[in-house]
Structures are given as C-alpha cells and as structure tokens.
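Service request form, structural biology core

Requester: graduate student, group of Dr. S.
Request type: structure prediction, single chain
Budget code: on file
Notes: please return the result as structure tokens.

Sequence provided:
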Amino acid sequence: MNTYLKVATALLAITLFAFTATPPEKKPKTITAVIDVSHGGTDAGMQHNLLVEKEIVRQIAEKMANLNKNQNLKLHFTRKEDQTVSLHNRVGYINAIQPDVVLSLHINANDKESASGVSVFYSENGAHTQNAQQFANRLVSAFEANGVFSTTEPRIAPFYILKNSEAPAVVVELGYLTNPHDSKQLQDEAYQDHIAKTLLSVIEGQ
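Core staff response, request fulfilled:
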C-alpha cells in the first residue's frame, strides 16, 4: 500500500508540475490597417483608353475586404464608394484610427509606353520613417516573389499622406495604365485577386 501511495503521489506531482509549467497560449496580435483608396468622385486620377484609376483601386480594395478572412486583421477604408475625399480628410480619418500601417493604393501612367511595374514610396519626414521603409521593402519583396509585375526599390516621396499620417504609411503604384501588359492585367479579376492577396499577406506580416 505504501509503495502504491508513493507512486500515485509521484505521478500526481509530475502531472501538476506539467500543468503549471505549460506557458499560457499567446493571444494573436490584432493588426489594424487603413487602406487609402485614392481619388474618387470628381477626382478620377489617371485615365487612359477608358481605364480610370479611381475605379481600379476601388475594385482592388473591395477584393481585399472580401478576401480578408483573418479575424485579427482589421481593415478600414478611406472610401468605399465613388466619392470625393480630400487629402486632409483622409489623413484625419487615418490619424483618428491610429492604425498599425497605412497603404495608399494608386495606378501609374507615363508618356513612355514601356514604363511598367509596381512602384512603392515612403516619406523620410513621416512620424514612422523606419517602420514605413521596412513595410515598403516587404511589399517589394512580396510582389517579386509572387510574380505581380516587375518592381523597383522603394523610393522616398513627399506625398501628403506619407508625411502627415501618424503611422507607417506607404504609397503603392500598382502598375501603369499606359503599358499594354500592365493595363490588361489590372483589368483582369483573377489578377486583381492576386494583387489583393499579395497586399494582405504583407499587412498580416506586420
């Protein structure tokens, strides 16, 4: 009987030790992002061959919203409809939310038809320059890895939203309306999905 009690006591001690030694599960980090859907309303943005920047960025933003299944990723949009929103109001909206990151969606254009690919910008005068630069670098790497257009190194730009957002902010030009290859891809729903998934993956990695 004594031997049995000793063994039972030892097993109970081991069980209790294992239970108390197990660290608690970490709660997944909630990431808040503002997606600045550029232009809108009376501001059409770039236009070429009936393609309009404000419409394409809104389509991609909608896909980001629909494809986001991560409950710990909270997306906010500076516009969801075809409406005019001033830069001042966009920044006010961003700073009121105080997000972890800001991503401003744009489409490029150029007099040279050969100009192509994704361009990423951040500001050296922003409140979170280092984090913005790191976010920009991750965007470029993700686009290169996923085969979403060609990319160049992130560049510094004095854009209003980049300078005045109180969060790491990046502008991404998602191709050129004036390039035949880019414009064809930007109109393709499957490719828009590909772009949206790429952007979401980078934001989730914050």
